[in-house]
Amino acid sequence: MARMTYHHGDLRHALEQAALELVAERGPQGFTMAEASRRAGVSVAAPFRHFANKDALLAALALRSYEEQRDRFAAALAGTDDPVEQLARFAAAYVRFAVEEPALFDVTFSAGLVKSDHDGLEEAGQQVLAVLRAPAEQLGGGLRLIHTIAATGHGFAAFLREGVLTDVEAAATEAAAAARTLASAR
After folding, report:
1. Cβ neighbours of residue 166 under 8 Å, at least 6 residues apart?
2. What are phi and psi for residue 174, nearest 5 degrees?
3. CA-to-CA distance for 137 and 83, rounded, in angstroms?
4. 3-state SS of the chain?
5. Would the pTM count as exceeding 0.85?
6. Is pLDDT of 11 > 60?
7. What is the pLDDT of residue 153?
8. Buried residues in 95-127 as b, exposed as e (16+ CB within 10 A)
9. pLDDT, tens only, 87-120
10. CB–CB of 107/65 below 8 Å?
């Protein structure tokens, strides 16, 4: 991939974007800070002005991922007051997020970050859960139901990403149907 053009004053964003591209190409552990620096068009020492190490850079991407998930899931739930349908829409949104933002998805689930080691990361994860907590609790399922439906969405997402399934919308529809079944069983 071509070297990015760094614009003065936007170093943090340039490094995050470079790292995100590298994650998309090689996975969260498949690059170095020096490679992210070169991709961003800055010296290998430049990242350390904003990130103590590679994990700190990945944590910034994980934070972005959680914020994106929170926003997408909240938008999906906003279309209905029915808690079963809200959780079905969450499952479909989960599948779409994994396919549309594979690098952010990989950072969230494959970077091996310990949330408590990075400021704001645990809280960001809790904010994602907070979006889902009300419908799950209305159905008497709580966190266990959220995890079960998320695992269902995760499975469909993995099948898409591995080529077992090829139609994103069909997979999202199936994940939603499975979530309806799980949520209705409460």
Report:
1. 160
2. -65, -40
3. 9
4. CCCCCCCCCCHHHHHHHHHHHHHHHHCCCCCCHHHHHHHHCCCCCHHHHCCCCHHHHHHHHHHHHHHHHHHHHHHHHCCCCCHHHHHHHHHHHHHHHHHHCHHHHHHHHHCCCCHHHCCCHHHHHHHHHHHHHHHHHHCCCHHHHHHHHHHHHHHHHHHHHHCCCCCHHHHHHHHHHHHHHHHHCC
5. yes
6. yes
7. 97
8. bbbbbebebbbbbbeebebeeeebeebeebbeb
9. 999 999 999 999 999 999 999 999 999 999 999 9
10. yes
Residue in the structure block whose two tokens are 């004053």: 9
Six token digits for residue 38: 């070169």
Q: Please tell me the distance from the alpha carbon of residue 32 to that of residue 75, in angstroms, as a whole number.
A: 35
Q: Are 106 and 64 in contact (CB under 8 A)?
A: no
Q: Which one-letter amino acid corresponds to residue 61?
A: L
List the structure tokens of 98.
């994994």
Q: What is the amino acid identity at position 37?
A: S
What domains sit in the chain, N to C, each tagged with a CATH number? 11-49 (1.10.10), 55-184 (1.10.357.10)
Give dist(CA 82, CA 79) in Å, integer.
9
